[in-house]
Each structure stands twice: as structure tokens, then as C-alpha cells.
Amino acid sequence: MPLSDAIIRIKNLRLRTFIGIKEEEIANRQDIVINVVIHYPAEHARASEDIQDALNYRTLTKSIIQHVENHRFSLLEKLTQDVLNLACEHPWVTYAEVEIDKLHALRYADSVSMTMSWQR
Questions:
Q1: Is the distance from CB of 37 to CB of 97 less than 8 angstroms?
Q2: Mean of the pLDDT values across residues 64-89?
Q3: Residue 90 bridge partners (DSSP)
Q4: Which residues lie closer than 8 Å to 9 by C-beta, 6 or more apart?
Q5: Beta bridge partners of 2
Q6: pLDDT of residue 48
Q7: In what order do the strands lie in the sheet with 30-40?
Q8: pLDDT at residue 86 greater than cutoff 60
Q9: How many angstroms separate the CA atoms of 16 and 28, rounded?
Q10: What is residue 2's DSSP assignment?
Q11: Distance from C-alpha of 25 to C-alpha of 60, rounded to nearest angstrom
Q12: Which of 13, 16, 64, 112 could form a disulfide with 105 if both were Cys (CB 3.0 to 4.6 A apart)?
């Protein structure tokens, strides 16, 4: 019987980036919160202590941070797709989902979020 996928959840990764189309948004970094879910078959990692047998979530998180902090985005859709592309680029990934909250994007709302997913 095959084992089900392992699930990695990167929760509430808080970053600052340039996101938006208004002059104020173009000039100033804004707070965003990123949540990532990744499924992968961890058969080797289940019986190992070797990081080479696992999907390294630290490496993935570093690449997300670098990309988000070093680019400018007009649309939340583009930012979300870029992070999703990073989340699913490892060949072991079978499913990835990214949700990004743009904090205080609307008056009277905590945030506006965008969610996208991908499946192999």
C-alpha cells in the first residue's frame, strides 16, 4: 500500500515588498503574509536522517524571501503566481498551494488575499 504524501506548511511568512498600482504603493513597501502548502512523497525521508532525502523547506523559504523582497509587483495575482512557481519547482512536489495576504489593502478589512494552486 503506497504511503500518502507528506505535507509541508509554511505558515505566516511575514515579508515587506512593493505591491500595488497606486503612487503610495509604488513608493513604499507593504506588509504581506505568505502561506504555502506543499505535498510530496517522502518515502526516503521517512526512513532516513539525511536532508538529501527530504524536500528542504528552509531552502525554499529563502528563495521565496529573496524573490519577494527584491522585486516589485503591480498585481497580487503576479506575486502569488511567482511564489507558487517557486513552491512547485522541485521535481518531487505533487501539489502546491500559495495564499498571500496584502495587509490593510481595504478600509475596514484586515487584508485581501489571493490563493492559487498547482497539481502535477
A1: yes
A2: 97
A3: none
A4: 35, 36, 37, 38
A5: none
A6: 86
A7: 72-73, 6-19, 30-40, 95-103, 111-119
A8: yes
A9: 9
A10: P
A11: 27
A12: 112
Cα 101 to Cα 23: distance, rounded to the nearest angstrom: 20
pLDDT score at 56: 93
In whole angstroms, give the CA distance from residue 10 to residue 114.
16
How many angstroms separate the CA atoms of 66 and 80, rounded?
A: 14
- Give the span between the Cα atoms of 32 and 18, in whole angstroms: 10
pLDDT of 118: 97
The one-letter amino acid code at 35 reads N
What's the rounded Cα separation, in Å, for the pair 15 and 37? 17
pLDDT of residue 2: 56
Q: What is the DSSP letter of 100?
A: E
Using 50, 70 and 90 to split pLDDT, how confident is the model at 46?
A: confident
